[in-house]
Amino acid sequence: MLQRPVAYNGNMPAKRPPKPASPLRAAFARRLEAARIAAGYETMRDFSEALGIEQARYRRWEAAETEPDLFHLLKISHLTGVSLDTLISGARRDAA
Question: Can you tell me the distance from the alpha carbon of 68 to that of 58, in angstroms, rounded to the nearest whole number?
């Protein structure tokens, strides 16, 4: 007798574990934390409030579990005074 596939198995975790951070994502997370601290936001909570997002969402960015979208990257750049080039790739513009 064939059985139907079960939609939920009680032994399955509620959420999938996060993917391991890639080296590029981890480097971005370090730059993000450094920019936040240099801008005077000592806690993730303060910065997430300034961004208008939940602290848990911001924590995942600094933990290199996920990345912000373009809208939030622009807000981060504005709040910290760090260029998008520096935030994303670590490249710094030379002063002319």
Answer: 8
What CATH number does the domain containing 36 carry? 1.10.260.40
Rounding to the nearest 10 degrees, give the CA dihedral for residues 31, 36, 39, 41: -160
pTM of this structure: 0.76
Number of domains the chain contains: 1
Position 60 in a domain? yes
- How far apart CA 96 and CA 94 sit, in angstroms, is 6
Interval 15-40: pLDDT, tens = 766 667 789 999 999 999 999 999 99
* CA distances from residue 53 to 31, 34, 44, 64 in whole angstroms, order as listed: 19, 19, 11, 17
Count the neighbouring beta carbons within 10 Å of the beta carbon of residue 70: 8
